[in-house]
Amino acid sequence: SDSVTGQTVVDPKGYLTDLQSMIPSHGADISDIKKARLLLRSVRETNPNHSPAWIASARLEEVTGKLQTARNLVMKGCEMCPNSEDVWIEAARLQPADLAKSVIAQAVRQIPTSVRLWIKASELEQEMKAKKKIFRKALEHIPNSVRLWKEAVELEEPEDARILLSRAVECCPTSVELWLALARLETYDNAQRVLNKARENIPTDRQIWITAAKLEEAQGKTPMVQKIIDRAITSFTATGVEINREQWLKDAMETEKSGSVQTCQSIVRAVIGYGIDDEDRKHTWLEDAENFANQDAFECARAIYGHAIKTFPYKKSIWLRAAYFEKNHGTRESLKSLLQDAVRNCPQAEVLWLMGAKSEWLAGNVKSARDILSLAFKANPNSEEIWLAAVKLESENEEYTKAKKLLQKARQSALTARVVMKSAKLEWQLGNIAEAKALLVEGIEKYPNYPKLWMMSGQIAQQERLIDSARDAFANGLKNNPTSVPLWILLARLEEKCGALIKARSVLERARLRNPKCQELWLESIRVEKRAEENKSVTMPIAMPMMAKALQECPQSGLLWSSAIFMENRPQRRSKSVDALKRCEHDSNVLLACSLLFWTERKLNKSREWFNRTLKIDPDFGDSWAYAYKFEVLHGSQEQQEDIKKRCCAVEPRHGDNWCRVSKDVSNWRLTTEEILERTANLLPIPT
After folding, report:
1. Residue 146: pLDDT band with limits 50, 70, 90
2. Residue 557 contacts by C-beta under 8 Å, 6 or more apart in sequence?
3. Topology at the third CATH level for domain 579-687
4. Which coarse location class describes where this protein primarily resides (predicted)?
5. Cα separation of 123 and 134, whole Å?
6. SS3 for 131-158, per residue?
């Protein structure tokens, strides 16, 4: 307080804050500090040459805020333990910058062979010239320290660094890093000499050989690259050095990332078969290629596939994996070249021919695609897949007459139920109902156990409003195919549409008896009951008890759980979704339902995150693409909408109730994937 007026002139808050800052922030009890101090003094007195005791004592005083005491203690430690570099470094740390320099100068005079002290001395200097001077002085005392040479070289310009490295490799001839650094700074001819010297001094290090190969590749001398790597393996084998396959493959990956493609492929070819039994080769190589592809080392993966194909030229599975790799990570030309080689070696592999034809067709080369398929016909004259691919190619290009002729030929030479079905479907799509019906009658006679023929027959009758004929087609189809779930559902929907709710229920009940634990049939039964409740056709609700029964019979059904979530009242939906995720964690239907749930709660970022998770887990599920697109239309940007469209067109989804309602509709057969996506999204209700 003021002594004259008696009033306070001290701000109480500020005063307390100042007091607070004076209290050490170590958080320990005062008595504990006294104990520690006592113990450390005892250690120092017992063994005054024990440097950790002096360091610990100084740090204790520093923590308690007594910096000067700490400095005094550590300097006393330097006197008692003059040969301990740790004490000197601690002393330099505790002293102010100007005094620290003199402490370190004293230290290096005392221990001139300590690398750490010289490096600490350079760190304390601010000017580059002084740093360089310290390192030069240090190297006079310790010329064989690799670390000092590296630190010194880093401070120099390229030309001075090269001169310094020339001296460094003389003083440290076993340091690979110094040899490689020197080789990088030299011209091509001098670099060769440097690497040859390095190999003489360190004959067991692979990095020198790999650098030599990279050097040749950089000069465009590709044939030399493989020779150098092969020579390295031979040299190591002769001198008894272990060839660590994993380590070499890791080096190949790093080499690819540094841009030396030929070297990385040469390494892979040289070591890929090393230490592997003959029967394990195919499996191990394909696994290695996949691992490389996952780590974006595409050239290494390509080299493995190339080697595997050379070793097993007639293995369809290897060609197929290589083709998928080129499709995802290569160019169209590389895929075309690979598939041409593939079909030469495996002419009976239909899938390879079809991949080649599709690749050409997507690139717009319809003629080339036709040529590939005609060659495929010669190799596989009665292949259903190739016939149908040729038909699809012609119909997609609106060459319907050619497509019909091809189907006619296929029925003569390779008649199957699928060929008949495709023939009838094309006629139906083109509006030739009579021809389609005639083909179906013929097909049903020959293949009564193929349910799709019965389905099409019933659907055409429905289109012509011949309800009794449609009912007969579905019923007769079920006599021959009692396990066909889509047929049961079509018959039940027909009865429901005609207003015969009891008949629809009866059909679905019979279906469930014939096909127990079938999630699709249970879901259809629940939907029938829900529609009946909405139309006030029933007096008491049946859908909820039926869902409970369905989940008892099919507890792992994601399809049922996803519907169950939205059948609950709003407050119960969250807990129902948790139960669903516990049962079916990776089911796309459940993940989609959770995405929609977040949407209804207006948690848009979370909803988008879950949509992406759904699309990743099952890209073939069209409903998730349609909902994700609708979500982006309402809440996203133009870029996000385009991204969904692009990704959807790339995978071409084919499943999902809402998706198939649009894509399988005969009137929509000319729609592209993008148009189906937009149309399906428009039909979907906004979740509530």
Report:
1. low
2. 519, 522, 550, 551, 584
3. 1.25.40
4. nucleus
5. 10
6. HHHHHHHHHHHCCCCHHHHHHHHHCCCH
